[in-house]
Fold:
Amino acid sequence: MSTPWAQLRPTRAELAEMARLATPLVLVNVGLMLMGVIDTLMLGRVSGAALAAGALGNFAFWFVGTIGFGILMAVDPVVSQALGAGDEVAVARGVQRGLLLAVLVTVAMSLALVPAPWLISFLKQPEDVAPLAGGYAHWSIPGLFPFFAFAVCRSTWQAVHHPRPILVGVVVGNLANIALNWMLIFGHAGFAPGGVVGSAQSTSIARWIMLGAALLAGGKDLAPRLKPWRPESWELAPLRRMALLGLPIGFAFFFEFNAFGLVTVMAGWLGTAVMGGHEVALNLASLTFQVPVGAAAASGVMVGRAIGRGDMAAARRDAVAGLCVGVGFMAIAAIVFIAVPGLLARAYTTDLEVVAIATAIIPLAGLFQVMDGTQAVCSAVLRGTGDTRIPMLLHLAGFWLVSIPLSYGLGIAAGWGAIGLWWGFVGGLAVVAVLDLLRVRHRLGAEVRRVVIDHAETA
Structure:
């Protein structure tokens, strides 16, 4: 982008708006991640095998869940751009179609999770891990609909700059998950110890509680978008266009998440201890990643609203602001990961072999923090513009053509073990970050038209 820096620098008002929206969204993303972190911490107190099984079962859930989640993220540009244009009718149609898609996605993803135990066994995971992981995947199915419905509601609340209901839902959901884990994993309050399966059951129940609490806190914002229900929301052609807008987002998430997931499978080939150490490092990296994801969500909303009102200069400044916040935080996280890896590893487990492996690879997780933050914000900015197909191809190139082959080549073929697997992460993320930055520069260097779902909308 050849625009001078003075024109790209965000104004104080824009930075203040970014802070107001991003701060609670960061807390929301950390809270959502904490549900998995708490499960991992509590399963780590059961055994190393339970820790690894929970990680593998969660991988099976996300293996199919990423596509559904991505489809529903079509709500983001549709609603934010409609709000920027002052088109409340299009906002209502976007929310209603999002909920219809959530129902369809739930059915499809539930069917996809049915063969999860067979798939996990086929991937030749440790015998003490595979059956438990399969049970975890099956008990995740009841929590799919509240998870997807919460995603639609979350996109709406973000777009109207009212994140409080999301935060309330996440806090209540986490508290419920802790209590339910205590009862269902360890067998307290009259329940039999459920271990890994108990963890999945508690998470599914907690997701329903999370959705209910959020709706109680933010129903007033959703009510005008749901009542009256618009007959055109049932029309197949616009619903199909919205799904096709979101499907590339889903595949982009699929390529990203499952690159990490397939490396998790490779870690399982190296034994239970390597699997556990890998999960600790990945869990830590995923936790810090939620901060730039929060900044990214704010950036995508602000860019979308700016495009909706036809203000490209503001869209460019919002993109720069998001990059400053997201990348800046990840630089700090990288320093912490490199400085105290052993301390971080011991917070997860008392298994000395797992701690040793995690301590060796956590500094590598620190190295890709900055690149991870960069690609997260850039991807959200592109979604805010309605650009979903090209980013999908960029993720395919970086994660599947670079990261996976590099991880296998170094970690398995060359015998570097966990260290080699994680160098593959570093290489793949570097490619994705650079390609995403170049795409943002190209996309925002020209005028961007509003996303069209209904032909009656302004193009």
